[in-house]
Specification:
Elements: H1 2-19, E1 21-22, E2 25-28, E3 31-33, E4 41-42, E5 44-48, E6 51-56, H2 58-64, E7 65-66, E8 70-72, E9 77-80, E10 82-87, H3 89-95, E11 99-100, H4 107-120, E12 126-131, H5 145-150, E13 156-160, E14 165-168, H6 170-175, E15 187-192, E16 195-202, H7 206-209, H8 217-233, E17 236-244, H9 246-258, E18 264-270, H10 273-282, E19 285-286, E20 290-298, H11 328-339, E21 344-349, H12 352-365, E22 375-378, E23 394-397, H13 399-405, H14 409-413, H15 424-431, E24 435-436, H16 447-456, H17 476-482, H18 485-490, E25 508-511, E26 528-533, E27 536-539
Parallel strand pairs: 1-7, 2-8, 3-9, 10-17, 11-12, 12-13, 17-18, 18-20, 20-21, 21-22, 22-23, 23-24
Antiparallel strand pairs: 2-5, 3-4, 5-6, 9-25, 13-14, 14-16, 15-16, 19-20, 25-26, 26-27
Helix pairs in contact: 3-8, 8-9, 11-12, 13-16
């Protein structure tokens, strides 16, 4: 009898094991925000062939699936991998190869940083980025005189944090034979007392940069891999790089094919004539890791360097309206060509005049066409009557811009016009979704700062006490959607990523705290414990 009973138990156990489905990974005991259409929560999921195959509770998942890789989350919060809907992934990597000027509080500090950097990084050219005169006690553009005296024979190029202005020395100006008589459409050379200061705004920068040494393939590879390490550490699993050329896109593809670059990249192709001709002829390029189906254009400059195009002059600079970077006739021609393709058009528009023009050109080009998901990148200052035009145009916005710019934005725009700036809730109400990003390295990479800025509308010190224009703050649920499923939607990728659902890529992150419930002041210091792309752990 005992032998018979043991036989039955062994047979039952074997049958039970045989009935379980072998998968690559099983995650249990988690606090999972699925971000599905109902914003459901779950406890566990199973992964097979890089995708979620079932999501549910721990008991059911364990009874149905078996795996050699069982992950007990021990109650930690899991959310879909973050998607940065607007950033400069390659530029982030390049920044690690030059002088880091982010956070400098004076021009003197910049000079000291350059001197220290050149001691250990001797070069025939000096490049740096990240300065912002709005963070200095003297909030004026710098002058090249000190650079000229220190580096008379070495070209120096220092990019402003937004990339829309730079400071160069005389040696750099000499590369392009730049004088006070040099002209460039869509750009400005800052002149004081009849002399060049070395500050070049928007397209004026090209007078120098086109003579600057081009990065090698090895430089690009190293930059991409460095950027990947940084981004995985913050829980980013997809990045929308806003402005890439054909050569870089091909390097990204090759690195992804070899498995060296595991980051998923939504590539916005820089809207140059050659790029537009090539990709419209080639058509959409889509792999599991790379998506090439959009063009990036510039309507104007940036507000911080007074290059944003305004309908009325700057409040702190009368008779100055900003810069138009693409003439409207050319922009309209491109819009019509792209509208007749499968490609998406994404346009940088900061000022109310730029947004006003782009929205109307978009509407005209898209007449009768459905679900094209064209985006306005930044949508930073909007005239009251223009919000309704976002009914079928996606606002792609960066919440940390509001908390970085709030100290001086009203000086630029005035008391009334500022009410239509950084208006994320108003934009959400008109389109129904917002795609959220950072614009790094203009802002910091951390998606936790994005989340905090969207919800609290404060800086990390808690200023202002009651938040900046809180009527345009987003809820935590809206913010998480904007960083996951809505960002995926803006890329036509909501069917494959952006939520934890069966059939989608197993891109997810484990957090050290519950981002949906933790006190808001703790969000900026949150950490990503693990990052998974396609079920593979890429950061731990």
């Amino acid at each position: 009898m005992m032998i018979k009973l043991l036989s039955i138990l062994v047979l039952t156990a074997l049958t039970s094991c045989q009935q379980k489905i072998k998968v690559d990974s099983v995650v249990i005991n988690a606090n999972v925000y699925t971000v599905n259409s109902s914003f459901d929560k779950a406890e566990a999921f199973a992964i097979k062939d890089s995708k979620f195959i079932e999501v549910g509770n721990s008991k059911d998942i364990q009874e149905k699936y078996t795996s050699d890789n069982l992950i007990d989350a021990k109650g930690q919060t899991i959310v879909p991998g973050f998607i940065d809907a607007h950033c400069h992934f390659l530029a982030l990597g390049f920044n690690s190869q030059q002088v880091d000027l982010v956070g400098t509080t004076s021009f003197e500090e910049i000079i000291n940083k350059i001197i220290e950097y050149t001691k250990t990084h001797p070069s025939e050219y000096i490049r740096g980025s990240g300065w912002d005169q709005n963070d200095w006690d003297i909030k004026e553009f710098p002058n090249k005189a000190k650079l000229d005296s220190l580096f008379p024979n070495t070209p120096v190029l220092l990019k402003r944090i937004d990339g829309h202005a730079c400071l160069v020395n005389q040696s750099a100006l000499d590369l392009g034979n730049v004088t006070i008589d040099s002209k460039v459409e869509g750009g400005e050379l800052v002149i004081e007392d009849g002399k060049l200061t070395g500050v070049l705004i928007d397209r004026a920068q090209q007078l120098v940069t086109k003579y600057w040494p081009k990065p090698t393939r090895n430089d690009v590879v190293n930059a991409l891999l460095k950027a990947q390490d940084i981004c995985f550490g913050y829980g980013l699993t997809t990045v929308n790089d806003a402005g890439l050329d054909k050569g870089v896109i091909e390097i990204i593809d090759s690195l992804q094919q070899t498995g060296d670059l595991k980051m998923r990249v939504y590539a916005m192709v820089s809207g140059t004539p050659n790029n537009v001709d090539y990709y419209l002829n080639k058509g959409i390029i889509k792999t599991d890791k790379l998506d090439v189906r959009s063009f990036k254009f510039y309507a104007d400059g940036a507000l911080g360097s007074r290059g944003a195009l305004l309908r009325k002059s700057y409040s702190d600079k009368p008779n100055h309206f900003g810069l138009q970077l693409t003439d409207l006739k050319t922009f309209d021609t491109y819009a019509k060509r792209i509208a007749n393709s499968e490609y998406q058009m994404n346009t940088h528009a900061i000022g109310d005049s730029a947004n006003h023009a782009v929205l109307r050109i978009y509407k005209n080009a898209l007449e009768g066409k459905k679900d094209r998901r064209w985006k306005i990148e930044h949508a930073q200052v909007i005239s009251p009557e223009d919000f309704e035009l976002f009914d079928d145009i996606i606002p792609s916005v960066q919440p940390t811009h509001a908390t970085s710019d709030m100290y001086w934005a009203e000086d630029r725009l005035g008391h009334e016009r500022i009410k239509g700036a950084y208006a994320y809730k108003d934009l959400l109400n008109h389109y129904g979704k917002v795609a959220l990003g950072t614009d790094f390295p203009v802002e910091q990479v951390s998606p936790f700062l994005t989340f905090y800025a969207a919800v609290a509308r404060q800086d990390v010190k808690g200023y202002p006490k009651d938040g900046f224009q809180m009527e345009n703050s987003l809820s935590r649920e809206e913010t998480l959607k904007g960083m996951t499923i809505w960002a995926a939607y803006s890329n036509f990728e909501e069917g494959e990523k952006g939520s934890i659902e069966a059939g989608k890529f197993a891109d997810f992150i484990i957090l050290d705290k519950n981002i949906m419930e933790v006190p808001v002041k703790e969000i900026p210091e949150m950490k990503t414990l693990q990052t998974f792309v396609g079920g593979e752990s890429v950061f731990n």
